[in-house]
Amino acid sequence: MNIVLLGAPGAGKGTQASKLAAEYGFIHISTGDIFRANIKGGTEIGKVAKSYIDAGKLVPDEVTCDIVKNRLAEKDIASGYMLDGFPRNLFQARELDKFARIDVCLNIDVPKELLMDRICGRRVCACGESYHVSTLNGATTCAKCGGKLYRRDDDNPETVAARLDTYEKQTAPLIDYYKAQGKLLTVHGGKGSPDGVFAEIKAKLDKLIAK
Ligand code: ADP
Ligand code: ZN
Questions:
Q1: CATH classification of the domain holding 189
Q2: 141 C-alpha to center of ligand 2: Å?
Q3: Stated pTM of the model
Q4: Which domain holds residue 23?
Q5: What pLDDT shows up at residue 158?
Q6: 107 by DSSP, 3-state: which?
Q7: What is the mean pLDDT of the chain?
Q8: Ligand 1 — pocket residues by CB below 6 A?
């Protein structure tokens, strides 16, 4: 099964993706992670991406679509994958439909007013785990791997406001795009724990898989 994960920044796409990977074995492909790895590695792509990411804007479509297209050309995706952070606008969604077969769009719906706090309180680990300061009890290392937790450069209030605006204007219209294709599956990601959200996702996905 090939899944597009949709949701505002801070909706919990990454968190749910790691749970889905553990449960179903789907490969997790995050364009944000790919860009951050490129920035860290000092590549050409990283240099281009950094200025857009710091401004809370989208990295140009040509760059992003190529990255995803190349990634989906690898063999390991045959058993199913999740796209996290792609597509992020209508152009990318239409491009994706040219080189991939998407089965379902999992939309994690979270009330807007929760997002700013969620992102600014987020602490991440290089292993991919993320946490919120409110549940860390002062811990500074990752419960999963012991790595040091840090705040992403773009998780500051100014950049987050721009990212939320970009989401509203460019990404939210994809909800209707996938609805029109009959592929939309919406779950509520605002209330309850990450495990509670995952339970709803699992129930809905299993129903779909059983069909
Ligand atoms: P979040 O979902 O928390 O905003 P991501 O890690 O998915 O974070 O993305 C971080 C940044 O990387 C985005 O704000 C954007 O600048 C860039 N980016 C990620 N995916 C895409 C994409 N599909 N198209 C354009 N830019 C992207
Ligand atoms: Zn870790």
A1: 3.40.50.300
A2: 8
A3: 0.94
A4: 2-111+171-210
A5: 95
A6: strand
A7: 96
A8: 9, 31-32, 35, 52-53, 56-59, 64, 85-86, 88, 92, 163
